[in-house]
Design a protein that fits this description.
By secondary structure, the protein is mainly β. It has no helices and 24 strands.
Length: about 350
């Protein structure tokens, strides 16, 4: 079978020396890294099946002549290393898995390294480096001893809401009574699970029946969803869920969010369509209403010592009848003891 190639050309600068091919951004396409000796950089060209994006430039040591690819810090993301001829060192650039690389970390080797290879030379599972030094006529071996990753710390959180009120815009990463969530290595934290559910960013139903939407940045909305309506006024109960955070390097930790749910009840309202009575209130309290008859359109909320009367007209005296006009917003509070001598109809 004959072999055929289509030519694709991309500008990569002057004195390009060597290149490596790998998938730097995890999209399944092969990308290219190439070193330019005259411009002291490595260029990364991300592939998109049929072409390559514009080169991204990353500074390295002086006069790089070789580039290769490996995972040097064990985060399962590809990193770059270059052999720098004039500065007699190698540059390691840690990748973020999206096609970007951190600033170069430089490590001295022999005089004028020209090429390098990567391998595990001491069997510890880490990628080590060997550089060939032209002027000093030797090989420099750099054994990789990466700092261990320190896992993040998730602290428990405490919130309070009423039984009939949704809690919007909560944040689990900040201090909510037990301290902030943090990472010893200053890695960026993300939420990856809620109650072992990886459906982060979408609304889920908790075991209590409440609704929760937890986002990867640690913000959330919580809705009691009518599951606690049986609570008496001022009575409390709790609801909770667990969230798991990740530092992006394999380290995780979990925290518990506890909600205190406070019961609140609207007072029952009785509508009095018409009253015929010699006396509906005793004269105990701040106000007394005597000799009332034919009181219409009067609403009394809860028959207790402290109660609310809603009236729709202020009193005008027409013989022995009393009408009620609107009183501000229609709420008048009277501190009395209620006595009913006749039935309501």
């Amino acid at each position: 079978m004959a072999v055929n190639f289509d030519l694709i050309q991309n500008a990569i600068g002057n004195l390009a020396q060597t290149l490596s091919v790998a998938d730097f951004n995890g999209d399944g396409n092969s990308d290219i890294a190439v070193v330019n000796e005259s411009s002291d950089n490595v260029l990364v060209l991300l592939g998109d099946d049929n072409n390559f994006a514009a080169p991204q430039s990353f500074a390295v040591g002086n006069s790089p002549r070789s580039v290769t690819v490996a995972d040097f810090n064990g985060d399962e993301k590809l990193d770059l290393i270059t052999a720098n001829y004039l500065s007699s060192d190698v540059s390691v650039l840690l990748g973020d898995g999206n096609g970007n690389f951190d600033a170069a970390q430089n490590f001295a080797v022999g005089n004028n390294p020209d090429s390098l290879i990567v391998g595990d030379f001491n069997g510890d599972g880490n990628s080590d480096i060997a550089a060939i030094n032209l002027s000093s006529g030797n090989v420099s071996v750099l054994l990789n001893n990466p700092s261990p990753n320190n896992p993040p710390i998730a602290n428990d959180d405490e919130f309070t809401t009423l039984e009939n009120e949704a809690f919007r815009g909560g944040k689990v990463f900040v201090n909510n009574g037990r301290g902030v969530d943090s990472d010893p290595d200053s890695d960026i934290l993300t939420v990856i699970e809620v109650n072992s559910n990886t459906d982060v960013g979408n609304q889920i139903i908790l075991d209590s029946g409440a609704l929760l939407t937890m986002n990867s940045d640690g913000t959330f909305d919580y809705d009691p969803n009518g599951q606690f309506d049986s609570l008496n006024d001022g009575e409390t109960t709790t609801d909770s869920f667990e969230y798991t955070i990740s530092d992006g390097k394999g380290g995780t930790d979990s925290g518990i969010v506890t909600f205190t749910i406070v019961g609140t009840q609207e007072q029952p309202v009785s509508q009095i369509e018409g009253i015929v009575s010699n006396e509906i209130f005793s004269d105990r309290g701040e106000d007394a209403i005597d000799n009332s008859s034919n009181l219409s359109d009067l609403t009394i909320a809860d028959f207790m010592d402290d109660f609310t009367v809603q009236v729709r007209s202020i009193i005008t005296d027409n013989s022995n009848d009393m009408d009620f006009l609107r009183f501000n917003d229609g709420l008048l509070t009277i501190d009395v003891s209620l006595f009913v001598s006749e039935v309501f109809s």
